[in-house]
UniProtKB/TrEMBL annotation:
Its EC number is 2.4.1.-. The keyword tRNA processing does not apply. Belongs to the UDP-glycosyltransferase family. Keywords: Glycosyltransferase, Transferase. It holds the Pfam family UDPGT. It is an enzyme of class 2 (transferase). GO terms for biological process: (-)-secologanin biosynthetic process. Gene3D superfamilies: Glycogen Phosphorylase B. It comes from the Eukaryota. GO terms for molecular function: quercetin 3-O-glucosyltransferase activity; quercetin 7-O-glucosyltransferase activity. The keyword Transferase applies. This is Glycosyltransferase.
Amino acid sequence: MDQVEQHRPHVLIFPFQAQGHVNSMLKLAELLCLAGINITFLVSYNIHNRLLRHTDVVSRFSKYPGFNLDHYPDAYDESKIHTAQQIMELYSSLQSVVKPFLREFMSKDPAHGTGKNRSRFSSIIADGILSLALDVAEEIGLPLIYFRTISAGAFWTYFCIPQLVEAGELPFPGDDMNIRIENVKGMEGFLRRCDLPSFCRVSDLTSPDLSLLLRETLQTPRAKGLILNTFEDLEGSILSHVRTYCPNLYTIGPLHAHLKTRLQLQVANSNNSNSNSNSLWQEDKSCIKWLDNQPPKSVLYVSFGSITVITREKLHEFWHGIVNSGVKFLWVIRPDSIKAEAGDDVLKTTKSTPEMELEEATKERGCMVGWAPQEEVLAHPAIGGFLTHSGWNSTLESIAEGVPMICWPYFADQQPNSRFVGEVWKIGLDIKDTCDRVIVEKAIKDLMVERKDEFLHRADEMAKMARKSVEEGGSSFCNLVRLIDDIVKG
Ligand code: UDX
């Protein structure tokens, strides 16, 4: 670091160790680097190595001398996280291993030693589910802003859980999951039991996963501010409720589109790489060539994100539904995403005649990869729809490109996200809690054929709003400027 860089604010960014969190927080890191802020991006040793192995993060960030990628000792292998139970295990190791590390890391200044007010950092941006960072920041006296990687809508449903319990709406009195929920302000008209985060589907409210998420969410107002990867035109009415508890809100999304716009504004010849992948798996770019040969808006992109694991039975229902729809498809099947015996190839083990026909049709109409360059895929003119698990990054990436969705949420925040897509924004179909080949086939035909124009029109309107929000003068643009000002002022 030269002398100028030494006098710049230095922000420690500390994400939760999972793809969706690292991805969006690294985008924020780059936006702050572009504004001349020094960043230390702190991840687990394993994530650090995966980023180095699968991305060009080192060369991409080499143009920002104030950027530093650092790591803490592995507390838990994040590639094992597929269930709420595993998230719980990760948390307990974060407390025992990472919290002491963080205390030392945050309070030490190589130039001036260790102790209160000796940190080399001017502030911290921590993942909004890592209150251990907030505890340490308060001990040391450093300002901390939270970054929550979920939608405002999902955040708000978590935040309202105490009201639901008080009103007797939780635990669910009865089995009918279609009953309306009345005590999440702003969502009275459309939220059903089945649309609450999956962790609410418990008979015992002291269940560890719900308690943990609730505890993490309810302490959000302790932070100096809250950054959300969303934009005002998308979630304005819910944001007004969130603001009553967290008034210092920075809505700066969609972050990937925001970063892209800022990078395009940089001088075109400044050696900017087109790829800004933060993937923890190796991207298979061959699918882009395959897409290049498909007609516009003809291909369904199928991906269930970085955590989802599905049974062989469900996979087969999707496979039949997708192939029977007659639509062309690009399907991401992560190597670790299927509950199966090691070594058996799910799409080739059964060899009955109908299955062989299915395989033939798959070869004719489909392309399958283990991990795709998703942002590039969704921006490709051949893509006409997205069958998604409704992770928030995937949802925003689809919205920004005007791609309508079929939503099959897996867990956590994905249940409310899919309700917003289907019922509030009306840019897709919500097929949660069903996994039947006939329903899948019908949904694809509806989205990609029968109601194609209607969905594309609405998705296109939404994409325009997303773009407007990150352009100069747009709400996300202005909020990022405010965030940068606040970081600089300290
Ligand atoms: C989960 C949550 O559901 C999400 O809302 C939360 O913010 C983080 O944890 P995940 O399953 O990882 O997320 O889904 P999502 O939020 O959609 O993130 C997946 C990311 O991986 C996206 O940015 C997507 O572009 C990327 N991806 C996915 C690829 O780059 N290639 C792929 O093949 C699949």
